[in-house]
Design a protein that fits this description.
Helices cover about 35% and strands about 25% of the residues. It is of the alpha/beta class. Strands 2-1-11-10-12-13-14-15-16 form a 9-stranded mixed sheet, with helices on both faces. α2 packs across α10, α5 packs across α6 and α8 crosses α10.
């Protein structure tokens, strides 16, 4: 068995799977970038990735070091992802929607040797570097002219060798590091091993299913687990499929690409599907190539699901999961529309349960909530194939979230006798707006920095387009403070991404607290829903 173990651990890696496709499908299209009229075969992608490996090595990046990126979906993202696998480095994509303060946190946490970014992120990067204690040795802007102590991607890779790097690989090597947010509002890093990425790719290949004959397109950003690992570079290049790159979502452009390139799988959040359906009803694109549209981030309402099946494709898929575990429940077309509104049932290799709620103590994994569709409990996930079971540089959060092989999600849900799970809320009061996770505490911390704010509590109200809109109740220390002034303050804050700023305000004399001094976010949310109906909230 030693021989098997050695071969398995050194060869069953993501990069070996990619190289098999270079050998098998060298002349086949790997990716298309319609924005610039460019495309790459597997052989050409391999060559370009090797050139980046050489340039990164010259810049001092070595096995185990971090390449951090703040990139839109673009070819350079793919080159960097493949290059990191080839050289044993860690690919660390950061949200291009992060505020400078959030990016600074990531810089100090991961200490990347190289930072790559779009020119549109330059001001965020400049401010983050001033806020951070750590500075990468090399800055690379992938589009536009270089400035501010940076190099252009073209200059960085000019004359670089395309020879294949000689690096020993292991399935347990960290290959990607994705940042999520915790209940404290600080980002936390999920380190993924090569084997996690291989088995995430296999999960997609099983559940779609996906093969070398498919053409995929993400309308969501690749810095998300759902973007990178659901039809993004991880599964598509491992399966030998082709990718069409969409930097930013536009419904007309997305549907035109489906018709032009024969796209078989499209990935997007439910709000994206609404935009696609509206555009399709207006202009009627040829969607005959579509095998399915995969959505995640929030459940599909039954009426919306039926509409998408009628207008776009009968094959609608819906996944639920976390950054730590990828997706873990799945709704396939034959589950819909009957089970629309649920998060689906466990994926093939996953064990997803709803356990009873116990205040002040952790629930044991076998202490299950009744499978009656009524009792509310917490969702826990055992995902041995796709989860690293730890956070990078964050032992306390690892201990808090993982227990006996399960991730405790803080999601509140019911489940039925067939294992279909329906999410009803969050134990930590997370807000989901346009598919993005937003935590009240981080916004409250920014508001507290304003000298005219005495106190605040942040919650949300329902919104048909975005799902939820951030809402803030504020106690003023200066009566001259206005909602418009606070909105401008939030827009200028380096510690708050623009999409997280409150869209509704109400000034009040007091906030709901418990007897032990904790803010009652649930009560605030109920009040906000009522205040919205009665026109008591001021919209920005």
């Amino acid at each position: 068995m030693d021989n098997f173990k050695n071969i398995f651990e050194s060869r069953y890696t993501w990069v070996e799977g990619f190289m098999r496709n270079v050998r098998r499908y060298g002349g086949r299209t790997a990716m298309v970038y319609p924005q610039d009229g460019l495309s790459w075969t597997y052989r050409e992608l391999d060559t370009e990735s090797n050139r980046l490996v050489s340039a990164l090595s010259e810049a001092g990046l070595k096995k185990g070091d971090v390449l951090m990126m703040q990139l839109l979906n673009c070819p350079e993202f793919v080159f960097a992802y493949v290059a990191c696998h080839k050289m044993g480095a860690v690919c660390c994509p950061m949200s291009y929607r992060f505020s400078p303060g959030e990016l600074a946190w990531g810089l100090d946490d991961s200490k990347p040797t190289v930072l790559m970014y779009n020119s549109s992120c330059r001001e965020t990067v400049k401010t983050a570097l001033n806020l951070a204690n750590y500075r990468p040795t090399t800055l690379v802007v992938v589009d536009g002219k270089a400035g501010y102590g940076e190099m252009s991607y073209q200059d960085f890779t000019e004359g670089a060798s395309s020879e294949e790097p000689e690096v020993e690989h292991n399935i347990y090597d960290e290959t990607s590091r994705l940042y999520t947010s915790g209940t404290t509002g600080h980002p936390k890093a999920v380190p993924l091993a090569s084997i996690n990425e291989v088995l995430s790719a296999h999960d997609v290949m099983i559940h779609f299913p996906m093969s070398y004959r498919d053409v995929t397109m993400n309308t969501t950003p690749w810095f998300h687990r759902g973007g990178l690992h659901c039809a993004g570079p991880c599964p598509a290049l491992y399966a030998g499929a082709a990718m069409v790159i969409l930097p930013k979502f536009d419904a007309a452009t997305a549907l035109e690409y489906v018709a032009r390139y024969g796209i078989t799988f499209v990935v997007g959040v439910p709000t994206v599907l609404g935009g696609l359906a509206d555009e399709q009803e207006k202009n009627g694109y040829d969607l005959s190539s579509l095998k399915g549209i995969v959505t995640m981030g929030s459940p599909l309402e039954k009426a919306a699901c039926i509409r998408y099946q009628n207008v776009l494709t009968p094959n609608i898929f819906n996944g639920y999961g976390t950054t730590e575990t990828f997706w873990n429940t799945f709704l396939r077309p034959f589950d819909l529309p009957e089970n629309a509104g649920t998060a689906g049932a466990s994926c093939i290799d996953d064990d997803v349960r709803v356990v009873r709620l116990h205040e002040g103590s952790r629930t044991e994994p076998d202490d299950l909530a009744a499978q009656d569709g009524k009792e509310i409990g917490e969702v826990i996930i055992c995902s041995p194939a796709k989860s690293p079971y730890l956070y990078f540089n964050n032992g306390p959060e690892t201990d808090r979230k993982y227990y006996k092989g399960f991730l405790y999600t803080n999601d509140l849900a019911t489940w039925d006798d067939k294992g279909f799970i329906t999410i009803v809320g969050r134990r930590d009061d997370m807000i989901i707006s346009s598919g993005e996770n937003i935590y009240p505490t981080e916004i409250e911390a920014v508001l507290a920095m304003n000298p005219k704010v005495k106190d605040s509590i942040v919650t949300s109200v329902p919104d048909k387009v975005r799902g939820q809109l951030v809402t803030a109740y504020v106690v003023r220390s200066d009566e001259s403070l206005t909602a418009a002034e606070l909105d401008g303050y939030c827009k200028q804050s380096p510690y708050l991404a623009n999409f997280k700023r409150p869209r509704y305000y109400r000034f009040t004399d007091s906030l709901p607290y418990t007897a032990t001094g904790k803010k009652r976010h649930v009560e605030a949310r109920d009040n906000a829903a009522s205040d919205l109906v009665h026109g008591l909230l001021e919209k920005i």
